[in-house]
Amino acid sequence: MIIGTSNMTSNIDNACSNDIGIPMIVMMENAVHAAMKHIDTKIHKSICVICGMGNNGGDGFGIARHLILKGIDVKIFAVGNINKLSECAKINFDILKNMDADIKILDEINLEYAKDRFSKSDACIDALFGTGLKRNIEGIYRKVIEAINEKSAYTYAIDMPSGLSSDTGKVMGISIKADKTISFEFYKRGLIEYSSDEYKGEVVVEKIGVPKEIKEKFHNYEFITEKEDISKWIKRRKKNDHKGSYGKVTVFAGSSGFSGAAYIAAQSAVKTGSGLVTLVTEKEIQDIVSRKLSEAMTCSYDEKNRVEKIICDSDAIAVGPGMGNNSKTLSKINEIMEKTSSTLVIDADGINSLSENLKLIKDYPGKVILTPHPGELSRLTGKSISDINSNRIDTAKEAARTTGAIILLKGNRTVITDGYNTFVNPTGNSAMANGGMGDCLTGIITSLCGMGTEPLHAAAAGAYIHGYIADIISEKQFVVNASDIINYLPVAIKEILR
Ligand SMILES: NC(=O)C1=CN([C@@H]2O[C@H](COP(=O)(O)OP(=O)(O)OC[C@H]3O[C@@H](n4cnc5c(N)ncnc54)[C@H](OP(=O)(O)O)[C@@H]3O)[C@@H](O)[C@H]2O)[C@H](O)CC1
Ligand SMILES: [K+]
What we know:
By secondary structure, this protein is of the alpha/beta class. It contains 21 helices and 19 strands. The chain has 2 domains: 3-220, Rossmann fold (3-Layer(aba) Sandwich); 227-497, UDP-N-acetylmuramoyl-L-alanine:D-glutamate ligase. The chain is 46% helix and 15% strand. The strands form 3 sheets. Strands 10-19-18-17-16-15-14-11-12-13 form a 10-stranded mixed beta sheet, sandwiched between helices. Strands 4-3-2-5-6-7-9 form a 7-stranded parallel beta sheet, with helices on both faces. Strands 1-8 form a two-stranded parallel ribbon. The longest helix has 19 residues, at 455-473. The protein starts with a strand and ends with a helix. Bound molecules: ligand LZDS7PUF and potassium ion. (6S)-NADPHX binds at residues 55-59, 130-136, 141, 159, 261, 322, 373, 439. Keywords: ATP-binding, Isomerase, Lyase, Metal-binding, Multifunctional enzyme, NAD, NADP, Nucleotide-binding, Potassium. It comes from Peptacetobacter hominis.
């Protein structure tokens, strides 16, 4: 699904009306019908609709009309200078007037009356501002938003909670706190950033009839990953395939006390479907891990010639889980980079040890995927964790462009980007917030790369599958561990590809 910005909304509106002749009022009526699907008129029998002067307000007036037609007790409040109504908002406003609807201008004088109505209604619909919000909210608008937040029993926000920037998710002075946001055509970029979490409630996105060609003309190459994407990106297994068809992958992982990370990363690659998986690790933990790994092979760093051959033969290599942030890890990365140009998936200690040596990535002839959590990205970029988390998409894109790596920024709504194409992952939940999850993700992504999935897509698909499994398991379990994910991988991938 395309991620949308305010610019895209206005470009698309113009293209729909000017290039293909869909009048704006038709788009608005589509938006109204789309919104009506999500307003629960079985429960909400009395509703206040609060409208601004732009097209978001126009949507609100249209919704009010349809609610009246359904027999709902509707009070409509218009906030702002009525002479400044947008063309389509005016059409819907005039219709309500002609219908003798209960419509009032909401100003300082009748603010108390409005508050009383808000508190006596089952729900309020916020149609003050959508993608056209331009500056900080002040004056009567601020007071109205405060009143809705204070009095409304249940608040629907149309397209965006009024007060949130649709591009950045930042609060422009004050914002509606919605229970449900009904957004049109795109998942708005601002709703992805963490700052919107407190305000957006449940988010639904409805199509409003924008032709595919127009949407594709104006998007910014930012997407929410969907199940259908994964099934396009992962190679299907064919009848006459053999293990050589599914890639040889190598996992450099583990150290004394961290054998679990090595096991998890290697076993995740096995269960994702790699043809052959080899774990390369410290001699002292090799035995412990190989007892657990029945399908993957193991090799110790001491077997120098064998390690060299394994590196050269690998289609993709994971480095980092449980290796320790030290010069040894860095020298392993160096050694690998000198011998191959296969895709490298670098996680955990691998990322930390590269922080001071980013030039290595730039000079590497193959693709590198870095999978940092915000703390690791902070060490890599010098930005604070709070700066990273308040602007996750742009920070990840910038890091990808400066390092030359594909960045997978972990966290709720993981961001995956090569700096130009960006995917935001919709799956996963906090039941998976426990040790070993990152090692598991590294194994999945490396396996997909080894099977021939393009690295950016492998990273996005890996994140999706990882979270998809956790979403299923967490319906029955309080916590989801890496071993749960590993066991479910073959079933989940089959399900997703079906
Ligand atoms: N393609 C689609 O997705 C469609 C979406 N629709 C809906 O239209 C809005 C966008 O409508 P637009 O008219 O561009 O913008 P808004 O209604 O969100 O806001 C513009 C009005 O708000 C005033 N404004 C802006 N910021 C402030 C502020 N801080 N304080 C006070 N007033 C503000 C602005 O006034 P100006 O003085 O700045 O001109 C406008 O009056 C989209 O979100 C959807 O809901 C269409 O229905 C169909 C197509
Ligand atoms: K709104």
